Amino acid sequence: MTSELDIFVGNTTLIDEDVYRLWLDGYSVGDAVALRVRSGILEQTGATAAVLQSDTMDHYRTFHMLERLLHAPPKLLHQLIYQIPPSRQALLIERYYAFDEAFVREVLGKKLSKGTKKDLDDISTKTGITLKSCRRQFDNFKRVFKVVEEMRGSLVDNIQQHFLLSDRLARDYAAIVFFANNRFETGKKKLQYLSFGDFAFCAELMIQNWTLGAVDSQVDDMDMDLDKEFLQDLKELKVLVADKDLLDLHKSLVCTALRGKLGVFSEMEANFKNLSRGLVNVATKLTHNKDVRDLFVDLVEKFVEPCRSDHWPLSDVRLFLNQYSASVHSLDGFR
Amino acid sequence: MPGKLKVKIVAGRHLPVMDRASDLTDAFVEVKFGNTTFKTDVYPKSLNPQWNSEWFKFEVDDEDLQDEPLQITVLDHDTYSANDAIGKVYIDIDPLLYSEAATVISGWFPIYDTIHGIRGEINVVVKVDLFNDLNRFRQSSCGVKFFCTTSIPKCYRAVIIHGFVEELVVNEDPEYQWIDRIRTPRASNEARQRLISLMSGELQRKIGLKVLEMRGNAVVGYLQCFDLEGESGLVVRAIGTACTLDKLSSPAAFLPACNSPSKEMKEIPFNEDPNPNTHSSGPSTPLKNQTYSFSPSKSYSRQSSSSDTDLSLTPKTGMGSGSAGKEGGPFKALLRQQTQSALEQRGGSPHRFCRRREFPFFTLTAFPPGFLVHVGGVVSARSVKLLDRIHNPAFVGIMSNTRSYKLLDWNSFNSDEPETRDAWWAEIRQEIKSHAKALGCHAVVGYSESTSICEEVCILSASGTAAVLNPRFLQDGTVEGCLEQRLEENLPAGCGFCHIPYDELNMPFPAHLTYCYNCRKQKVPDVLFTTIDLPTDATVIGKGCLIQARLCRLKKKAQAEANATAISNLLPFMEYEVHTQLMNKLKLKGMNALFGLRIQITVGENMLMGLASATGVYLAALPTPGGIQIAGKTPNDGSYEQHISHMQKKINDTIAKNKELYEINPPEISEEIIGSPIPEPRQRSRLLRSQSESSDEVTELDLSHGKKDAFVLEIDDTDAMEDVHSLLTDVPPPSGFYSCNTEIMPGINNWTSEIQMFTSVRVIRLSSLNLTNQALNKNFNDLCENLLKSLYFKLRSMIPCCLCHVNFTVSLPEDELIQVTVTAVAITFDKNQALQTTKAHVEKSLQRASTDNEELLQFPLELCSDSLPSHPFPPAKEHLESASSNSGIPAAQRATSVDYSSFADRCSSWIELIKLKAQTIRRGSIKTTVTVEKTSPMGEGNFRNRSAAPCANSTVGVVKMTPLSFIPGAKITKYLGIINMFFIRETTSLREEGGVSGFLHAFIAEVFAMVRAHVAALGGNAVVSYIMKQCVFMENPNKNQAQCLINVSGDAVVFARESELEVVSTQQPAANCQPACTGGEVTT
C-alpha cells in the first residue's frame, strides 16, 4: 500500500510556523521530518511518523505554492487563491525575507550577479547554512535590489512599500542594497570583526549624508548612489594635510579642546598628523571607484588600527573625531 | 422579452504575460450570453488593464436567464495570429432573479483556464432588470428560491412543506463526441463546463416549475448530481423538497431578550426554526389511530418482498413489464389511497394531490419542531444497471458492430433517454416507499440518492429514514390549535420520535421492544438507525461520536451482464456486513442510536467498497445497549478459552472506556422497566435493503442473524478474529477532539466562532500481489484511520474542537487505486462550558423523565440560564490549565504559540503601518510607483477604516465556508442564492506542477477561491451547506497528464457576528459594497 496522493486544503490556509522555519532553512522533507521527530512532537500529540511525513509534505507543498507570491508580497495580500489572515501573511513575508547574519556578511558589498550566485556552494559549506537557504536569501537580496534600483524616493520606504517588510528589516535591506550598489569591500580579513549591524549603521549614515537624496534632489537611485559632487568636494580637504600651517593650527585647536578630556591624549597628540593624514587621504581618494570600494578597508588600516594599537577607548575615539571635524570649521577657508 | 441583463467589465489585474517579447499583455474581453457576444476594446500592453467598458445589454427571455450562464472570456489580442484565450469566468446569474437575494453581482473573479488554472482576476458588474410579466411562469420559474441547506433556512419560516421534487436531464458528454478527437483538451473541457452549466440551469428551472405547480416558492435540501456515464452520456439529476417559505420580517424578531452572546450560539443548533410561533404550538402527532390505521398488514410484508423480485434485470426494455409490474399496479393505487388517508384532507384537486404525493420523500435532515412524529428506521434500496444498453433499436444495432463513437444524431435519443433514467429512479423510489410502508411510515425523511459508476455498470442507491410526520406542515389549511394541544400532552418531546410507528403485534421484522425509558408509555426499539440529524428536542446522554464501517470485497473482472450479476450477488453480503460492523461498533461505544447514516457502495473494476458513516449517540429514551460477548466454537481447548476471555476482557474494557470518554452515564432505572439485561436472541435491524438486479436466490436477505445472539461474536474462523481485531483497532480521537458526521455534535453546544473547513484527498495504490479480502479490508481501514489521524494532527491548534459533518467519499478510479475524499469543518468550542451543559443535559433528561408538560417552554429558558452563569470567563489560569491538560500538549508548547500570536499581531500592525506609509508617500509630491494600479476612490476611505479598526479589517474580504447550515457565533441575515459550480482542470505537465498532489492541491485551492469570489461578488461573506459533490481524479503519469473534475455547491449568505447584530441594519449595505472595498484594497 503506497500513498499516491495525499493532500489537505483548508478554506483558511494552515501555516505551521515550525515547518515554515524548516522549509526556509532549506531542509528537505526527510530532514524536516527527522528534526520534527527529534523535537518530541510525536510524544506530545500521539501522532505517528507517517502522519508527520504527510503533514510536512503538505506544508512544504503549500509553501512552495506560496513562494511565487512571496516574491512580490503585495500579490500575496491581494491574491484570492489562499485565504490567509493578515497576521499570518505578515509572518510569512517577514520570515521569508529574514536572513542569516553569517550569510549576509559573506555577500555584503558583492555584486549580486550570477557569478556570486555560483559561489553560494562555498558560502554554504563555510557557514553551515543549506545551499537552498543561501539561494533564497541571495535571491531575496537580488530581487529587492532589482525592484528598488532606479527608483525615486527614500530607499527604506520603497523597500517597505514593495515588500511590506517591518521597519527594521527594511532598513537592513536598504543597507544591503546600498552596499551592493557601491560594492564596498567587506570581506577582507581585516574587516572580519565587523558585524552586519556595524555596516548597516554605516550604511544608514552614508545614505543620510553622502547620497544624492541627502541633498534633497529627486532623481532615480537617489539613496543608492553617492553624491559625486560631494566626493569631488572632499578633494578640497587635501589642504588640511598639505598645508603645514593649517595642519599645525588644526592640531592645536583639537589638542586645546581635548586636553584633560582624553585618556590617550599624549598618544593622540603624537599621532595627530598621521591620523589626520590617513583620514584626509581616504576622503580625497573617493572620486575613484576603486577607492570607494576599499573605503572600509582603508578606514580600518589608516585610522582604526593605529588607534587600536594605542588602545584608544571608544569614547576617546568619538570625542576626538567630533572635535577633529568641529575644529575644521574654525580654520581659514572652512568657515 | 422579460429581462435585460447588463454587464460592465471594469478592470483586470495580475494577468499573465502573454507576449514574451514585451513581458506584457494586450487584453480584451468577450462577454457572451446565449448567442449574443460583446467585446471590449483592447487595452494594450498591461497586466492590469482598465477597460471601464460601457454597459453591455442583453435582452433575453427569463427562461434563458435561468438556463444560461454569463460567459466572460479574457483574450490576448494578436495582430498576426489567432487571439490567445487567457481564461474564462462563468457567472450564474440566477441569484439576481429572486427579489430578496442579491441585487447586483460585482467584484473580482478569478480568470480560470482549464489548462493553466487561475490566471489573474477580472472585475465585473452584473445587473438584471426583470420586467413584470404576469405571464412569465410559462417556461421559466424565476423567483423560486433554491437552498442546499437540508433544514428550513435560518431567516425563513416554513408555512407548508410540500414534498419531493426531482428532475433529470441527459445529454451526450462532449468528451466522448467524435469531435473530441480533433479538438484541443481546452476546447473539450470548456465544452463540458459550458454544457453542465447549461444543464444545471435547465434542471433548476424545471424543478422550479414543478415547485410552482405545487404552489411552493422554494426548494430546500436541493441536491444536484452529475453522473458521468462515459459513452452513454452525461446525466444531471436533482432532488429537493418543495416548500412555501415566509421570510421572517426583521432579524430583531428572532433576537430574544436574553442578550448573552453565547445564547445565540447555543440556540442555533437547537432551533431549526427561528419562528417563536412554532414553539408555542409545539410538537404534535397525527391522530393516533390514524397512525395505526395503516400499520403493516400481511399484504404489506408480502408486498415488500414482491417489490424485490419485481425489479427486473436492468436493461429490460419497457419498465413494469412482466407479471410483477401488473401486480404492482393495484398496489400502487392502494398505497396512494393509504397515504391519502394518512395525511389529512388537503386542498387542491385530488389529481394534483396524487401526483404530488407519489413519493412522500423529504430531503431535509432537520425539521421544525413538531414536524417529525415517529421515526421507523433506515430504508434503502440499490439497483445495478447496465449503462450501454439504451432502448433504441437503431442504436443497439450500431453498438453491436462497433464500439466506436456514436455517429447518430443525439437529439433523437435525448427525448428517449431521460425516460430510462427516470424509470430507473422511479423504480428505486417505489421500493423505498414500500419499505417505508412496511415500517408503518407514510413518509421518508433525510432522503438522498447516489450513483457509483464503473465502466458500463452503475449502482443506483437511495436511502432515507422512514418516518411519520405531522400533517400540519404538509397541508395548506390551518389547523385547530386546541386539538393539537390535547394530543401533545400525551407525548413528551424528547422521546416521541423514538416511539415505534409500526404495529407491535405485526412487526415488519423481528425486533425487541421495550417501554420508552423516558415517558414509559410507548414502545421503543432497542436501537435506532436514521439518516437524519439528531432532532433538536431529543434527549441525549453524553456526547456522540463518528462511527464508520468499512468493507472491501474482491470481485472478478467481468463484462457487462456477468459483471452486473456478480455485483448484485455481492451487494447483499456487503450490506449485511456493513450493518453488522455498525452494530458492533455502536455497542462498543456504549451507544444506542445512529444519526446521519450514509452507506456508500462504490464499484470498481475488481472490487466493491462499502463505507458507512454515522454519528452514534445515546438516546435517553432507548434502552441501555448490552455488551458484546465472544464465544468460541471449541470450548474444550484451555488456551483457546483463555484467549477468548482475554479478548472478552479487552472488549469490556473498551466499552467502559468509551462510556467514560463520551460521558455516557444514563440515570439508574428501576429493574422492572429494563426487563432482562441479557441480550435478546435476535438481532433487530432497522435496515431494510433490497437488491434490484435480482437473481432468484437473493430475493430477501434476512439481516437478523437467524437464531444467533446479536451481540455474541463467534470466533470460529480467522474472519471472525479479524472482525474482533478491527473492532478494537479503531482508535478514538485524541483528547480534545470529537467528530461526527451530523450538523452538530450531540452533547456540545457552546461553539466558539473559529471554524476551519477543509477537504482532504488521499489515493493509495494497492500492491497487486494476490490481494485477499482481509488484506484489502486492512488497507482500506488503515487508509481511513490514517486520514482521520492526519486531520486530528493538522488541526491540533484548534483543540478543543469538533470535526462536524465529516463526509467521506470513496471512489475507485483505477484497478489498484482507492481514493478517499473527506470534507468537514472543525469548530472550536469552550471546554468549560461544555462540562456545565452536559451536566445540565443530564439534569434536564432527568427532569424530562418526570415532567412532560411545559417541555418546550422550559427548553429555551434552560439554555438561557445555563449560559448566563457560565459566560463570564473563568479565571484565566484555571482555564488554561484545563485546556492544556485536555489537549495533551505540554504547557510549554502552548506558551510558544501564544508568544507567536503576539508576534503575528506585531507583523500585522507592521503591514498596517507600511500600508499607511505607502499611502502617505503616494499622496506626497512624488509619484514613486510605476504600477498601473490606480487607487479607486474607495481605496482611501477603506484604508482609513483599516488603520482605525484593525480588528474589523481582518474580516474584510474573508469568506467563510462550512458544510453546516449555520455559522457558530453568528446569525445569518440573508440568503443570496445557490452556488453550484463545476470545474475541470487538466494538465499535460504533471511533474512540473508538483505531481498529482501538487496538481490536485492547487486545483482544490482554486476551486475554493472561485467559490469565495462568487460569494463575495454577491455581497456575501460565507457559504453554508457547502458540499463537494464530486471530485473525479484521473491521472496518466506516463504521459505526464492528469485531469480532475470537481462539483461543489452551497448557499451564499450574509452573516453578522452576534456582537454586531445590533447594527445589522447598517451592516447590510456595507456587505453589499464589499466587493468594491476589496477592489480598493488592491491598490493600497
TrEMBL record, chain A:
GO terms for biological process: platelet aggregation. GO terms for cellular component: nucleus. GO terms for molecular function: fibroblast growth factor binding. InterPro entries: FIBP. This is FGF1 intracellular binding protein.
